[in-house]
């Protein structure tokens, strides 16, 4: 449990390095490289379709399905997910990092709707990583399914940068927050009562 909490904290704190001018400049350059790269034609459509795996609606549906499949997890998992979502939103309000499409005029926006909340940390990356780590905790899943869930979380993060919604450090911090929270929940859920 404590390892997960530490990982989440380390991820957010290391992600806050964007506040240093030199790190912010590198983060912006990397964001633009990913965002403006010439990728094969169908990749952006695929990324756009897979981006759903980081949305709040997808997150809630998967958590409800997991709660129905494993009733003993339902309440604690819902509490962990809700707390992590609230923490992500609170960090966004405190950090107040503008979105890349606001601060970098050359960003190519590949989003049907522009998010209006701050950029840091990425909520989509947090949710996808939380679910990916949850899949690893679910012993009933075959290893390929759990590995696929983590790969999908990585793809969601890349899609957020590619779409112009986030900087890489936003995605890093969100993903570490999600993985750490899921690890903390898994550790807490396995503690004897």
Written description of the protein model:
There is one protein chain. With 193 residues, the chain is an all-alpha fold. It has a single domain, classed as Vanadium-containing Chloroperoxidase, domain 1. It has nine helices and no strands. It starts with a helix and ends with a helix.
Q: State Rg.
A: 17 Å
Helical residues, percent: 55-70%
**Briefly, what CATH class?**
Mainly Alpha
Annotated CATH topology: Vanadium-containing Chloroperoxidase, domain 1
What's the CATH architecture?
A: Up-down Bundle
Number of strands: 0
The geometry reads as globular
**Strand share of the residues?**
under 5%
Number of domains: 1
> What are the low-pLDDT stretches, counting only 5+ consecutive residues below 50?
none
Mean pLDDT: 89
Report the total helices. 9
What summary fits the major beta sheet?
Answer: none
Q: What is the succession of H and E elements? A: HHHHHHHHH
- Judged by helices, strands and strand pairing, the structural class is mainly alpha
Q: How far do the termini sit from each other?
A: 15 Å
Write the layout of secondary structure elements.
Elements: H1 2-15, H2 21-36, H3 43-50, H4 56-69, H5 74-95, H6 100-103, H7 123-137, H8 143-162, H9 168-189
Helix pairs in contact: 1-9, 3-8, 4-5, 4-7, 5-7, 5-9, 7-8, 7-9, 8-9
Task: Please sum up the structure shown.
The chain is built from nine helices and no strands.
